[in-house]
Amino acid sequence: MFGHHTLTQAFTIGSKLTVSVSTAHHDMHVYRDGKLFAHWPISSGRPGDDTPNGTYLTIEKANPVEMKGPGYDISVPFSVRFTWSGDYLHDAYWSVGEQGFSNISHGCVNMSPANAERFTAWPFLATR
Questions:
Q1: Strand partners, 18
Q2: pLDDT tens digit sequence for 64-102
Q3: DSSP per residue, 49-113
């Protein structure tokens, strides 16, 4: 028995969103369609817990994510995963004072609550 079927599907691809993080300058640039859209202070991995260098695609986003590691077990709002080993761009209300000045995280990129909420609201990746 053989069959024949024609399937048609339509979809739209949204704006290109690119993020460039500088662990040395403690900031993050957000580009939409190649134009600077936002410039935010961040805190990244402290020495020994360095944020990985490289080019990444986002894997998933969630609100919240349960994060566990040596000395911490916390529910973190507005989180976007970029490595399978557990590195995220996320809300870090506890480090707002250090953002833009020093690196104190366990490897993640910490943002203010307002910036993390805004970042995760963009429809670049479906919520799990």
A1: 31
A2: 999 998 888 999 999 999 999 999 999 999 999 999 999
A3: SPPPPS-----EEESSEEEEETTEEEEESSEEE-STTS-EEEE-GGGTTTTTT---BSSSEEE-H
Backbone dihedral angles phi then psi of residue 93, each to the nearest 5 degrees: -60, -25
pLDDT tens profile 33-74: 899 999 999 999 999 999 999 999 999 999 999 999 888 899
Residues tagged active-site: 90, 108
Length of the chain: 128
Measured CA to CA, the distance from residue 78 to residue 60 in angstroms comes to 11
| pTM assigned to the model | 0.85
